[in-house]
UniProtKB/TrEMBL annotation:
Region Disordered: start-end pairs: 362-386
Superkingdom of this protein's organism: Bacteria
Polar residues compositional bias, start-end: 372-386
InterPro entries according to UniProt: LptD, LptD_2
Name of the protein described by the UniProt record: LPS assembly protein LptD
Domain LPS-assembly protein LptD central residue range list: 219-752
Length: 943
């Protein structure tokens, strides 16, 4: 009893005991136990007394005494109304918004009683004139928070009894009629409810007569059942176990989901284990198993996913999936006439796999950069196992693994890349293993000689170098054969796919291409011409190294050419030179209006010329043999027997042909003729200076608005060609209207005439009977529109009081206007529309009666995507389109999301195509109860 007596003496000494007349002095509202002094600016300060020079200094051998008794630290308390002390009963009673703080313990309530003789705190609320209990006790012990109607707590034993309690544990809430708390912070509840809904009266809960909560670990209950909307359900068990999500990652089981598929039977999917070996890695192992039928096993699937992260260094994710299935579906549809999709008719691949890897480094100055983006696997894996729309529809995938580094204090940089691409529709696969690039940044020769810069012309001379080595493998093998089976030109072309397996490594390597290329770019500077033009000469040198080349031999018996591959080192080089001259011309049209000040036009003309010699006479590059021109088959003479540009000219018959020894090889191969070509281009842009209505300062009253972003015309002229020297005219137009509508138009025009077969002849359109300058051969129009309106300003006049997540001081939602909740007349929405059309000149009219002319409209399509927010918590997302050319609706999907406070409804509907079907899921939003859900689906896997 020593400690309470000492505490009372201390309290009385501070002015909480009776005064000199023996009367109780009430503690007024909000006055703390210790009143600090305030500075003139209102900030609290500590009373510091001047030192007493009469007191002797303390003994250096004296040791401070440890706290004695049951009270281990200071008890601080306050009340808004008053504090009454009962000395005889050793109690203090705090009235109206009372607070008590004792170490890590904090208590707030309408009335708190402190019993020092029993070390007991008692807290309860108070009823107002309407009969409603206000200021219910809120108790905090460390990080745990409780709300209740009455609390009894022993601050010595740290045990307590809480009536009508609500507390939060992780993402969940524990409601109980009575809660007992021990010194280990473990909670024992009677007639308890466990839920993740944060309302005072939750939408759903797990009801149990007995419950034990171990903070940050688990909730264990006796027999329980699930109650939804105050309706008891038969869902339950003899005991319950609900693990708490730890503050750090933890290992644990993953519960599978039950389902049914048409091709593999009943299933248990996505069941497995999540393993955390250390703080950097998380591994998720899941599997699928399918029942099949009495005669056939349904198969299985395995998925391994690893996430890794090292702060300030890198992060990534690796996912590998393997699936084994029957070669045919097990549950066939009853009415085969209804299900006639290609997905049902095409053969199935029994075993498929898919690998995804994404690795992103954290950039560091002077360091190397390793990155990876891999998407590769079996051709049919996504079509058979994936619900992801993009994966299902994407016809091709590519993968890249690279390492790049800039050598410090050096102009040298290098990169090592491994890449792969595959087409899931055709099965074609290409590998580049590896691709090595070494580059030297632009160097100035005068610096090598140690010359000082003096503004001379030679100081602009610069040289850069790039080394690139590639080894490319492909499973596509093209052969030309006749009846003899020899690989010949002039026969039937066949393309076969080499299966990508380890036992086919030899054929894949023989089908590969290897090359090492060197490129030197020499810049000779920029020089002014006629004050306003800029002239830039350049020289380029390329050299490729190959380990093989092609040899051609005419076979008289087969009247064809045999192609042989000859191994050995081969060096192929080429060089070219060019000039480029251009300028910028500006034109301004002043208007000086109230809203428009001026319009500016920018014109950027450019003329360039490039020359390269003829390498066709070099035997190391091309094979020139008169016998190679004598090719024929059953359909007549081929291969340059008559030049189509000169019909009827027999002098050009049976000209000898030249064949490249490096046809289809990597790198830039020298052309078979001299290059002497001039190119012309004109680029335009138009801007308007308008008044800025948002500017209120007057500093920048005008702003620039683009009228035409780009209007480009380009063409060329080949001086080395013997005919058709003038290239077609290309035109491109791009602008934006109101920053919402994006307009792009590209067009190609031709200057030459065509014969009855559609081939060009060396005559201009100006020379025909009805002369014209040019003819439109191809054009594309793309319109893109995106609109995201702001949310309407209309708001509900009735406030919605929903307690924040994980707050045990729960509130009841007030009655709101149902029309405000479910019909929002200012509907927010977004729309993205894209329309593309392609025009192609069908050519001359057919010369045979009854033959229809092909349509000029090559393609046209409209695609739409966006979302509509029907209410504050109900949203629709959609994607659809229409093929105007084929008059078909393209891929269409509709997604719905409905927020039900602590639940959520998600759904997807695909009405058309091989993937048509739907799925709907009603699930608890909390990750703690992620397996508490109801699924209903009819997809392409089980319809």
């Amino acid at each position: 009893m020593r400690a309470p007596v000492l505490l009372l003496l201390v309290l009385f000494g501070l002015g909480f005991g009776p005064d000199a007349r023996g009367q109780q002095r009430p503690k007024k509202a909000g006055i703390p136990a210790v009143v600090p002094r305030l500075n003139v600016d209102g900030r609290p300060t500590t009373n510091v007394l001047p030192p007493d020079t009469t007191r002797r200094p303390g003994d250096s051998l004296r040791v401070s005494a440890a706290p004695q008794g049951d009270i281990q630290t200071t008890v601080r308390y306050a009340a808004k109304d008053s504090i009454r002390f009962e000395v005889q009963n050793k109690q203090a009673i705090l009235y109206d918004k009372a607070t008590v703080d004792y170490g890590e313990m904090s208590l707030k309530a309408a009335r708190i009683t402190v019993d020092y003789s029993n070390n007991l705190l008692t807290a309860e609320g108070i009823r107002d004139t309407t009969g409603k209990v206000r200021d219910k006790p809120v108790f905090k012990d460390g990080a745990t928070l409780y709300a209740a109607s009455r609390i009894n707590y022993n601050f010595k034993t740290r045990k307590g009894r809480i009536t009508d309690a609500v507390t939060s544990e992780g993402e969940g809430f524990v409601h109980a009629e009575t809660i007992k708390k021990n010194e280990l912070n473990e909670i024992f509840g009677r007639n308890g409810r466990y839920t993740t809904c944060n309302l005072e009266h939750p939408h759903f809960f797990i009801n149990a007569t007995r419950m034990k909560v171990i903070p940050k670990e688990k909730v264990v209950t006796g027999p329980f059942n699930l109650i939804i909307g105050d309706i008891p359900t038969p869902l339950g068990f003899l005991f319950g176990y609900f693990p708490m999500p730890a503050q750090t990652r933890a290992s644990g089981l993953i519960i599978p989901t039950f389902g049914q598929t048409a091709d593999r039977g009943f299933s248990l999917r996505n069941g497995g284990y999540y393993w955390v070996p250390n703080e950097y890695i998380g591994l998720r192992l899941t599997g699928d198993v399918y029942s099949g039928n009495a005669a056939t096993f349904g198969g299985f699937g395995v998925t391994a996913e690893m996430q890794y992260l090292k702060r300030y260094t890198y992060d990534g994710r690796v996912n590998f999936s393997y699936s084994q299935r029957p070669s045919d579906q097990i549950l066939r549809p009853v009415n085969n006439a209804v299900n006639t999709d290609q997905a049902y008719r095409r053969p199935r691949t029994p075993q498929t796999f898919w690998l995804t890897w994404a690795h992103s480094p954290t950039p560091r100055p002077g360091g190397g950069r390793f990155s990876a983006s891999v998407q590769a696997g079996s051709t049919d894996h996504n079509q058979q196992n994936s619900f992801d729309t993009r994966r299902y529809l994407t016809p091709s995938f590519s993968s890249t693994i690279s390492y790049q580094k800039q050598v410090r204090n050096s102009p040298i940089n290098y990169a090592l890349t491994l890449s792969q691409s595959q087409n899931t529709a055709t099965g074609a696969m290409d590998f580049t293993l590896p691709d090595v690039t070494v580059g030297v940044a632009r160097q100035y020769p005068y610096e090598w000689l140690g010359l000082e810069p003096r503004g001379r012309f030679y100081e602009q001379f610069a040289l850069s170098y790039t080394l690139n080595g590639q080894n490319r493998l492909s499973n596509a093998q093209t052969t030309r054969t006749l009846e003899s089976g020899l690989p010949l030109l002039g026969g039937t072309t066949q393309t076969t796919r080499i299966p990508v397996r380890l036992d086919n490594l030899g054929p894949l390597l023989r089908n590969g291409q290897t090359a090492v290329s060197h490129r030197f770019d020499i810049s000779l500077g920029s020089y002014p011409v006629l004050k306003h033009l800029s002239l830039q000469p350049t020289v380029t040198y390329d050299e490729n190294w190959y380990g093989k080349r092609l040899n051609y031999e005419y076979v008289p018996a087969a009247e064809a050419i045999r192609i042989d591959t000859v191994r050995g080192f081969n060096r192929v080089y080429q060089y070219s030179a060019g000039l480029s001259m251009g300028t910028n011309i500006y034109g301004v049209l002043p208007i000086k209006g109230k809203s428009i000040q001026a319009i500016r036009h920018k014109l950027s003309p450019n003329v360039s010329y490039r020359y390269s010699p003829d390498f066709s006479r070099n035997d190391n590059y091309y094979v020139l043999n008169p016998n190679l021109g004598r090719l024929a088959n059953s359909s007549g003479q081929l291969y340059n027997t008559e030049d189509p540009r000169y019909p009827g000219d027999r002098t050009r018959l049976l000209n000898p042909l030249s064949f490249s020894r490096y046809q289809g090889f990597l790198g830039s191969i020298p052309s078979g003729q001299r290059v002497s070509r001039a190119s012309f281009s004109v680029q335009n842009s138009v801007e308007m200076k308008v008044r800025d209505l948002k500017d209120t300062t007057g500093i920048t009253p005008f702003k620039k608005v683009s009228l035409i972003d780009d209007l480009t015309f380009s063409t060329g002229y080949d001086f080395a060609a013997d005919s058709l020297r003038l290239s077609g005219l290309f035109g491109g137009f791009h602008t934006q209207i109101a920053r919402k509508l994006d307009v792009r138009i590209n067009a190609n025009f031709e200057f030459y005439q065509r014969d009855s077969t559609g081939r060009f002849v060396n005559k201009y359109l100006l020379n025909q009977a009805k002369p014209r300058l040019m003819r439109l051969s191809q054009a594309t129009l793309t319109l893109s529109y995106q609109f995201n309106p702001a949310v309407g300003q209309k708001k509900s006049t009735v406030p919605r009081t929903v307690a924040p997540t994980n707050d045990p001081v729960l509130g009841s939602p007030q009655q709101v206007n149902p029309y405000e909740d479910y019909i929002d007349f200012a509907i927010p929405w977004e729309l993205s529309a894209n329309f593309t059309t392609l025009y192609s000149d069908p050519g001359p009219l057919p010369n045979r009666p009854g033959r229809l002319r092909p349509s000029a409209l090559a393609a046209a399509g409209l695609s739409l995507s966006g979302s509509i927010k029907l209410t504050e918590k109900f949203q629709l997302r959609y994607t659809t389109g229409y093929d105007v050319k084929n008059k078909e609706v393209s891929f269409t999907t509709l997604d719905i999301v409905r927020d039900l406070h602590c639940w959520q409804i998600t759904g997807n509907w695909r009405p058309l195509g091989n993937t048509r079907g739907y799925f709907v899921t009603i699930a608890a939003k909390s990750a703690l109860l992620q397996d508490l859900k109801l699924n209903r689906n009819r997809t392409f896997l089980n319809r």
